[in-house]
Amino acid sequence: MEAVRTEPQGKTAALSFRNVDILFHRNNSSSAIAQAVKRLDEGGTREQIAAELGVTVGVANANLEIRRGEISVLMGLSGSGKSTLLRAANRLNKVTRGSVEIGNGTAFVDIANCDDETLRDMRRTRVTMVFQQFGLLPWRTVRENVSFGLELRGFTPNARRKIAEEKLELVGLTRWANSYVSELSGGMQQRVGLARAFATDADILLMDEPFSALDPLIRRKLQDELLDLQTRLKKTIVFVSHDIDEALRIGSNIAIMREGRIIQAGPPQEIISSPVDDYVRDFVRHMNPLPLLNAASVMRLLEVCPRWDDSTIQLDVTGHYGFNPVTATVSDRTGMEIPLQFHDTDDISELKVVSGCVYCVPVTASLNTVALLRQKSGMPVLISDASQIIGLCDDADMIGAITGVARASKVN
Amino acid sequence: MAFRLPWPGLKSPDCEARSMNGLEDWITSHKIPVGEVASNAVDWIRDHCQGGFDVISEAIGSCADGFTNLLTSVPPVLFVALLTIGVWFWKRAISTCVLVALGLLFIINQGYWQETMATLSLIFFATFTCMLIGVPIGIASAHRPWLAKILHPVLDLMQTLPTFVYLIPTLILFGLGTVPGTISTVVFAIPAPIRMTQLGISSVPKALLEAGDAFGATPRQRLWKVEVPAALPMIREGLSQCIMLSLSMVVIAALVGAGGLGVPVVRALNTVQIDTGFESGLAIVLVAIILDRLCRKKTH
Fold first, then answer.
1. Strands A253-258 and A71-75
2. Which of B208, B213, B216 sits opposite A137 (nearest CB)?
3. Opening angle at CA A248, ends A242 and A254, nearest 5
4. Which of A33, A240, A332, B243 is 20 to 30 A (C-alpha) from B268?
5. CA-based Rg of chain A, rounded to a whole angstrom?
6. B230 at the A interface (CB within 8 A)?
7. Nearest-CA neighbor of A96 among A2, A207, A15, A19?
8. What is the secondary structure of B8-64 as a DSSP string?
C-alpha cells in the first residue's frame, strides 16, 4: 500500500482533512485546474476564478480534524462546499490538492491519494456512507440492499443474511426484510440506508444531508434514532446539514463553511456564544432557540428574588405566595401551606398535574416541561439542582429567555 | 446592325447556358466511384475471405435448419398445448393464453404451420444474434462517448439504407437461402438493442453509481450489480423491439430464399393470388401479436 505514513503520537482524530482544495472544470481540463490553483494561491476569489477560467472552486484550503466516536457536522448554505468536502472523505470527489487521512490501525491512509485497490479496501471496511436520496437499489429487497456492501466484499449468502438481519433489527425494519424499497416510506427507506451503512462495520460514517428529503416529523424521529444508535455504536460520524437546528441537536462539533472555506469550527456552544462573523451570526440568529433552552437557562435565582421578610421569598408577581427556603415549604399570605411536588425527570407525560400545586423540577428540565407545568398548575415552577431548590421560573422569566437570544449562550 | 451588349463584360444568356453545360459536364465526367468502390470491396472480400463466409454460412444454416426441424417435429396440436401451458405459468394471464391458443390453432387451420415454425426459427436466431452482439456494444458505447459518436451515424445508416441494397452483397457472399435472410434481418434489427442498451446504461441514476462506488465496487461489480440491473427494463424493451423488427423482415428474407411465412406472400404477389396473400399476411400478423404479448412486461 502506498501513501501510508505512521503517526507515532496517540491522536484521537479518526479522519483529518489537511489543506484540501477541490476544484472542478466542466471538461476536466487539468491545465485549467492547475491555473486555477495558482490563481487561488495568489488570492483570487471564487467568482474571479469561475469567470476567468471556468473552474469551480468547491473547497479551498480546508483543514479539519474529526474526532473518533463523535458526530461532527459540516454546515453551510447550499453551494458552500460542505457536501463536496464530505465526499472527499471516500473520494467520490477527487481532491485537487491536499490530503484526507484516515486512521488505519497505527498507520494513516491518505484516501485522497492512495491507489485504487487501497481506496476500494477503505471504502469496503473503513468508510461508509448514507445518501440524501437514499441511493437504494430498487430491484433488490430490503435485505439484499442491506447486504450490498457485504456482497461486494464476497461474503457467503449465509453470512450476509445473518448480518443483514442483525442490522435490520437495529433500525427496526425486521418485518420488511423481504419487501422492495419502493414499498417503503421515505423515513423507512433512509433506515434501510443506515442499516446498509452499518452492515459493513466501518467505523467512519459519512452522512450527506441524510434527513433533508424527509418531512420534519420523520426527520426529528430519525435524528433521535441516530443519537440513540450512536450511544451504542460509537461511530465516527461526519454529518452534512444546512439546518442549524439539526446541527445543534446532533452535533458535538460543528464546522461552518462558506464559499468553499471553513470559517468556524468548534462545539455548538462556542458557535452560538462567539460567532466569528456576520454569516455565522446570521445562522445562529435564525435558529430555533427553544430546544436548547432548559430550566437552568430560563430560571431566576432565589437570591435575586424579592423577599417578604428574612425567611420568605416572594414567589409570584402579585405577591400572594411565598417560599421558605429553610423549611422548603410554600405558603400563601394567610400562612396556609401550598402542596409542593418534586419531579425528578424531564418526562411529564405520565404526571397528572394538579392545579394550585407548586412543582419543582431539576435544572436539566427542558423549557417545554417548565412551561407545561407552569400553565397546568397555575403556579410558578421551582427549580432544583442537586436536590437543593435554587431558583424559580414564572411567565416573565420564560418570555425573557425566548426573546433574548443572547441568553441562549447560557446553555449548559 | 449588330446586337450590342449594354455594357462590356456581360455575356449573352446563350453564352451563359453553354458555360453551365460545361460545368455540368465537368461534374458528371468526374464521377466519384462510390458504386465501383463498394462493388470492388465486395469482390475483394469474396475472393479473399470466401472460406470464412462459407463456414459462417454453414454454421448459421445448419443451426437454423436444425432448429426449424426441431420445431416442426413436434405435432402441431401438442406444440400449441405445451406452449399455452408454458405461457400460463409464465404470464398467469388467461387472456394471453386464449390468444396464443386460438391464434396458433387458426394458423394450423389455414395450413401455414410449417412456414410459421420456419419464421419463428428465423426470428429466434436473428434476435439471439442481435442481443449477443448488440448488448455488449451498447454497454461499451455507453461507457465511451467517442464510440457512441461513431456508432450513431452507423446505426442510422443501417436502419435507413434500403434493405435491398445490402441484400445484394449478402447474396453474393452467402448464396441463396436462410443465411442471407438471417444476416439481413440481423443488420436491420441490431440497432434497436444497441440503442436501448446504451440509453439504459447511460441513464442509470448517478446516486446508484455513487452508492456502488462508496461501498467499494470494482468496475466489474459496478457493471453487473448496479448498471445492468438498473438498465434491464430498457434492455428488455430493446429485445422486444428487436423481435418486432425481425418479424418485419420475413417477406424480404423470403426474397433471398429464406423459408417461412414470407414465401407464400412473395408467391402470392408474383401470381396475383389474393387468397394466399391474405391468408399468409394474417398469419404474420397473428405471430406478431402473439410475440408482442409475450414480450410485454407483466403489469402488476
1. parallel
2. B208
3. 70
4. B243
5. 26
6. yes
7. A19
8. TTPPPHHHHHHHHHHHHHHHHHT---HHHHHHHHHHHHHHHHHHHHHHHHHHHHHHH
Count of helices and strands (H, E) across chain A: 15, 20
pTM over 0.80: no
State the DSSP H helix or E strand holding residue A17, giving kind and residue range, or none if neither.
Answer: strand A13-25
Supply A22's cell numbers.
477541490
Closest by Cα among A72, A82, A64 to A251: A72
C-alpha cell at B227: 448498471
Distance CA A405, CA A401 (A): 7
* Cell of residue A79, nine digits: 453551494
Give the whole-angstrom CA distance, residue A396 versus residue A390: 18
Interface test with B, best of A83, A150, A152 (most B CBs within 10 A): A152
Q: How far is A123 from chain B (nearest CA, A)?
A: 5
Distance CA A215, CA A213 (A): 7
The three cell numbers locating residue A410: 447560557
DSSP state of A141: B
Give the position of cell 419487501.
A179
Best of A133, A144, A147, A200 to disrupt the B interface by mutation (most B CBs within 10 Å)? A133
Q: What is the pLDDT of residues B18-68, one digit of tens each?
A: 566 888 888 888 888 888 898 888 888 888 888 888 888 888 888 888 888
pLDDT, tens digit (0-9, with 9 covering 90-100), for B182-212: 888 999 999 999 999 999 999 999 999 999 9
Q: Is B210 on the interface with A (CB under 8 A)?
A: yes
Strands (E) located in B179-248: none
Helix (H, G, I), strand (E, B) or coil at A204: strand
How far apart (Å, rounded) are the C-alpha atoms in residues A193 and A199? 10
- How many CB pairs below 8 A link A and B? 58
Strand ordering across the sheet containing A107-110: A4-6, A107-110, A97-104, A13-25, A55-67
| Cell matching residue A150 | 457485504
Mean pLDDT, 10 residues at a time, chain A of 412 residues: 42 84 88 89 88 90 91 91 93 93 82 92 93 93 95 94 93 93 92 93 93 89 92 92 89 92 89 85 79 80 81 82 85 84 80 86 86 88 87 85 54 38
d(CA B171, CA B257): 10
CA dist B134 and B190 (Å) reads 6
Nearest Cβ partner for B207 among A128, A135, A152: A135
- A276: Cβ–Cβ under 8 A, 6 or more apart, which residues? A263, A264
**Other Cβ atoms within 10 Å of A172 Cβ, number:** 12
Cell numbers representing residue A120 in the block? 476500494
In angstroms, the CA B135 to CA A376 distance is 71
Which residues, in sequence order, are CB contacts of A48 under 8 Å at separation 6+? A39
Q: How far apart are CA A31 and CA B77, in angstroms?
A: 72
Report the 10 Å Cβ neighbour count for A165. 15
Please determine, for the modelled complex, whether the ipTM score is greater than 0.95.
no
How many residues does the structure list for chain B?
A: 300
Secondary structure letter of residue A287 according to DSSP? S
